[in-house]
Amino acid sequence: MAAGARFARAVRRAGPWLWLLPAMTVLVPFFLLPVAVLLRNSVYRDDPGALIVPDFVATNYLRIITDPYYADVFVNTLMVAFGVSFAALMIGYPFAYYLVRWAGRSRPFLLWAVYTPLIVSVIVRVFGWMVITADSGLINTALLSMGVIERPVRLLYEVAGMVIGLTHRYLPLMVLPLVNSMAKIDRALLAASVGLGAGAARTQLYVVLPLSIPGAVAGFQLVFAGVLSDFVLPNLMGTTRFRMLAPTIYDEAVANLSWATSAAMAIVMLLLVVAMLVCTNLALRRFAPWARTL
Amino acid sequence: MTIHRRRFLRGCAATGAMALVGAPWGVRRAAAQDLKTIRVTQFGGPFQVVKTAIGDPFEAARQGRVIYEVENSVSALTKLQAQKGNPPFNIVMFSRAFAIRAGKAGLLTTLTLADVPGLGELSPDAMVPGGFGLGIMLDSIDIAYDTRKVSAPITSWLDLGRADLKGQVVMPAAALPIQFIVMQIARSLGGSEKSDKAINDAFAKLKEMKANVRTFYSDPIQATQMIERGDVAVAVQFGIRTSHIIKANPHIARASPEKEGVPGIPYDLCITQGSDNQDVARRYVNFAVRKESQEGLVRDLLATPVHKAVAVPADLKKLVVDLKRVWFPDEEYAAAKQPEWSQRWTREVQS
Amino acid sequence: MIEVRPPSAKGAARRAAGSAWAERPVDLALRCVSKRFGGVTAVSDCLLDVHRGEILALLGPSGCGKTTLLNIVAGFEDPDAGTVELRGRALNEVPPNRRETGMVFQHYALFPHMTVRGNIAYGLSARRRPRHEINDQVDDAIALLKLDGLGERYPSELSGGQKQRVAVARALAVRPQVLLLDEAFSALDKNLREEMQIELSLLLRRLGITTILVTHDQREAFAVADRIAVMEHGRIVQVGTPSEVYLAPRSSFVLEFLGSVNLLAGMIRGRADGQVAQTASGISFRPQPPVEAPDGAAVRIYVRAEDVALSRSPTAVHAAGPGTVLLVTFLGPVRRVVIDLGGQQVLAERPAGETGDFGAGERVFVDFRPGSAHVLRDS
Predict the structure, then answer these.
(1) What is the CA B330 to chain-centroid distance, rounded?
(2) Structural domain count of chain B
(3) Terminus-to-terminus CA distance in chain C, angstroms?
(4) What does pTM read for this prediction?
(5) CATH for A70-293?
């Protein structure tokens, strides 16, 4: 009887933690452990004969930091991540605003249009983009037949094609948090602003814009992290002449069988993402202290 | 009456269900029940035909049951490494460099001459150095070109640098076996692929060719799409994939330069270290190089056979790479040089 | 609509008190304002004058159109018909940001991303006032609304009462010609609400600012407003001082909406010495003034709960059969007694000391002053 009661009490005390169990059973073996393995591999030594040799060296990291080739890769990737995040913000912001403010009956359709890229496999979409952006694709055929250009504009397998693909892929991750933050803006705030003498532009600039910053920051974080680690689009729509991080890690692991070096690069990539998250959150805290209480 | 009808209906339902699922499955299971099962990887895509060419006859001959899994050399090697000692497959299909690497890492069992009774009927390079596996077909790296878009047919690897092909060539990126292209260019320039100077010359030549390259692809399907769409005139492509391209597109031809040849890549079956049913696995490897299986691979996969007595049918002659044009790189040497060359390729060629 | 004749002789004097406002200039004039949403009439043909310095309450149940009318004044809604004039200027074509109105929203609508100062300064910045002037006026508003020390706080760091002060300060900072309060007290707890009602009515009177207060709470309207406009189904059914609308309701709706009212069925009995109305329970009295109804006509008799008198013995004036006390509840200053009178429930509110000894189950005689009953003929 007492044992039963003790057990019941133990279960009751453990109760709240049990809610974490399903997530933990997925996160621990499939996320934390791989990261731990990656961390371990990054201090091992690459051996041309036998893949990877246990060791504890910093050479992999030193190589990544000192070799200008890798510096280029990191600079390229960060540039594209910033660029795509910015482009997604520029495209996503008006879209989200229209969706929240004006779209009445078309709202479900527009939302669906945003969601579709999340539902359709990225490979399928890449093949779609290929058909459109290829040298003999829709865009070029149209421009050629209209006489706008004399020879095909190179989009596919160039930085431009990759950026188009990346922007399309990650746009939903920008739009959804924006829509969320804009939908939370009380209409009475807009009325209050206008009632206090502000015009539409001032209301937009001083009320809607600042209040959608948390959504924009969340969207920026998601898009930035996504682009930083994207492998498919640089590979299938980009060019090897403009190296991106994820394919380089892949090449390092697969072509060069340098697992340790690739692990070190992956860790650096992870750190970049973490650094970006910390920086944006600090900025948000500094410039929008009210956002935490929303 | 009611009961009768109900019983009748129930009988019908049972029969129907059996006919739909139960019966064929039941029969098949009965036949396969006493057979040992092995798991074998293949590359997917066109390589699915290994089931009809090898696996099904193997089972029909009551040698064992085969379950195929799709893995490329990289993913298979990764999994073997990750599950060392308890491999998820009995047999892995590797392209040769990976067979050697995996073997040296202790992931594979070795075959002896006694294990392959028919070795004498196979081409001389069929056995993986060190006995880490047995080649069952040959792929190669070749050049496919659009006859309508080139001013003159491609007859040499050095034609890739021709002035009329500016922006008209696609080449593989570093994740694909570019070491053979480097060696091929060194040979085409008249040097030895094992001489560092010749390799340096080859890289210099490749750098010259860069201007002609529209893009360096990381997935072979991209090369196929681009040449089929007409975006480019010339694609450096795997031989088997080239065969499928020219089969579907009459205006696209295979270069297979006559004097220089093309580098051959054996695809090997390797038995994993620590897996069970090693006897069945060895039977399967031997079964794959038997004449009938080899004929099937030629017919369905358009692969070059390793069995010397298998003749390519006349109607397929134009599609399948002629063994006479193929030279075999020293895979061990290539494997040793691969990291260095791959790095040079990423930095000097595809950049 | 049912018209009720003013029952009281004091009505005239009260009307005079209400019309004192008429001497002041009209600040805001609504002329035949109407508004429909789809097939629903929200505001219908509203006529209203709000005089300078007056606090006018728009009182009515939810959905009566009072907020719509306020939004029309503020410019958030366009009327379908009619005009709105503010100090002689027609507002119909003036966008909301060019009207000199200040609004306090039901949930205050404070900008969550701005500090208290930022919120108060918002309207001044929008008017592009010089920075020092803005600072001075914000300081004034902060002092006026007793918000000292809270200037750098964000709205999420304020209590409900503080939020309301900020909302009022923000609306007043722009020196509006008319202040609009939309259910501005409803988000507060009862005690705080009454405190703020007193404080705000004192402040608004001191500033002499013309104010429209929208509320569904009769006590609030009475506590804050100089005059009350009662609305029903989009119409303004009566305008007057609180005592006017309470004591001289012009319709059964106004009557029933203000305070707790007993509705007793009855009929008219003509007698030689004059008209007599009798309730179903047998109470007879002379309606003052008389009702235009023939002998035997069914009438409805309204008596406010506080006008119901109770006694242990039959009363001289309205002798009738006794009722039974069902329930006595203590409401602080008064006791509420629920009585069963011939099958009908009657509510009486008596000063606590007076009814202290009534208990449930006791027999009790019900009575009321003839002048306090409103008699209406059944339609």
Answers:
(1) 17
(2) 2
(3) 10
(4) 0.79
(5) 1.10.3720.10
